[in-house]
Write a structure and sequence with these properties.
By secondary structure, the protein is α/β, with parallel strands linked by helices. The chain contains 11 helices and 17 strands. The strands form 4 sheets. Strands 3, 4, 5, 8, 9, 16 and 17 form a 7-stranded mixed sheet that branches. Helix 4 crosses helix 5 and helix 4 packs across helix 10. The protein is globular. The two termini are 12 Å apart. The model has no long low-confidence stretch (mean pLDDT 97). It binds NADP nicotinamide-adenine-dinucleotide phosphate and zinc ion (2 copies). One zinc ion binds next to loops.
Length: 352
């Protein structure tokens, strides 16, 4: 079926209206009318071809909240009219050990997991198209349910990537009472990291390069704010942190953060810059048995757990709503780290 969308036709062309083909919903599929789609920095990296393997046309968007319009006959968890959500994955093998454990994002099957956009349809190889579109068709397994109130749906959309990408490592590295946790970069991911780490009752320290975000970070839930460009201030916190989550979208010096870890502390990278970080100093790592790790999004069950946790605590993203046609202006502001704190596209602004 034809669907109106916004696409980049090449790494150098601005996003513009485009028509894509969605498959007819099969027995296990859910057809969703997209109401809101968050704007992740990954959308920009992909549209501009900053990562390898981007295929065009590229229709970004993996923070999707919408209304179910139709379901296949084998679908049991959602019904037409329900509010549903889709995040960063739309397929995986479902039978490997990782998938069986709910770690679909680390699928070991022959095709790995299929990303919501710029993914390879399992077995078929066609490109997948994301949420900058009026509809999406997704296997029921990858459809999340939303318990937030009707007024909150736009602000729920960013939980589908920014929320789960920070929740998953915070849980894995056991952020909680008695732990000192740093969140680096107060953007879309980082502001959710601050909110979630606070809700998990860790002592939360926000690191920002934008002094103007300091008071805001306290409002979001940080106990302390450190302006990371102040080297003297940074050095006062050596050896303090159990865990630091780095969400920064550009290459930068990791040593400044590794030094702040306690013995056995971990710096986990979720930011995915176009160019590598400078190689970190080995001595900072070995002298206190510190680790640098990475983490990718989160599994489906874990995403539902995070959504339900957020609904029960009334947690949503801080958003700025935009029209689809303003996406290039939004990308320009993302590059200036000037978003409070996630753009969400009102998809009704894209003519069907
Ligand atoms: P974002 O909203 O643009 O936030 C990035 C933040 O990084 C900025 O707000 C800024 O925070 C900081 N920053 C920007 N330029 C900087 C610089 N030159 N030096 C130091 N800090 C700088 O982006 P996002 O949507 O949160 O995504 C962040 C990164 O995570 C992207 O690379 C994205 O692709 C990646 N990502 C990874 C996963 C995963 O599964 N691992 C999932 C989603 C996104 P301050 O102003 O506070 O310094
Ligand atoms: Zn994302
Ligand atoms: Zn698998």
């Amino acid at each position: 079926m034809h669907t109106r969308a916004y696409a980049a036709q090449s790494s150098s062309s601005p996003l513009a209206p485009h028509t894509i083909e969605r498959r007819e919903p099969g027995d296990r599929d859910v057809l969703i009318e997209v109401l809101y789609c968050g704007v992740c920095h990954s959308d920009l990296h992909a549209a501009r071809g900053e990562w390898d393997g981007i295929r065009y046309p590229c229709v970004p968007g993996h923070e999707i909240v919408g209304r179910v319009s139709a379901v296949g006959k084998a679908v049991s968890r959602v019904a037409p009219g329900a509010i549903a959500a889709v995040g960063c994955m739309v397929e995986s093998c479902r039978v490997c050990e990782a998938c069986k454990r709910g770690l679909e994002q680390y699928c070991d099957g022959p095709h790995g997991f299929t990303q919501t956009y710029n993914g390879w349809v399992q077995g078929g190889g066609e490109n997948t198209y994301g949420g900058y579109s009026r509809t999406i068709v997704v296997d029921e397994h990858f459809v999340l349910t939303v318990k937030h109130g009707a007024q909150q749906l736009a602000a729920v959309a960013p939980l589908l990537c920014a929320g789960i990408t920070t929740w998953s490592p915070l849980r894995h590295w056991q952020a909680g009472p008695g732990k000192t946790v740093g969140i680096v970069g107060i953007g879309g991911l980082g502001h959710m990291g601050v909110k979630l780490a606070r809700a998990l009752e860790a002592h939360v320290v926000a690191f920002t390069t934008s002094p103007a975000k300091g008071k805001e970070a306290l409002r979001l839930g940080a106990d302390e704010v450190i302006v990371s460009t102040d080297a003297a201030d940074m050095s006062r916190h050596t050896g303090r942190f159990d865990f630091i989550l780095d969400t920064v979208s550009v290459s930068h010096d990791l040593d400044a953060y590794v030094k702040l870890l306690k013995r056995d502390g971990t710096l986990t990278l979720v930011g995915a810059p176009a160019t590598p970080h400078p190689s970190p100093s080995i001595f900072n790592l070995l002298l206190r048995r510190r680790s640098i790790a990475g983490s990718a999004i989160g599994g489906i069950a874990e995403t539902q757990e995070m959504l339900d946790f957020c609904a029960s605590r009334n947690i949503v993203s801080d958003i700025e709503m935009i029209a689809m046609a303003d996406i290039e202006k939004a990308y320009a502001r993302l590059l200036r780290a000037d978003v409070r704190y996630r753009f969400v596209i009102d998809m009704q602004t894209l003519a069907s």
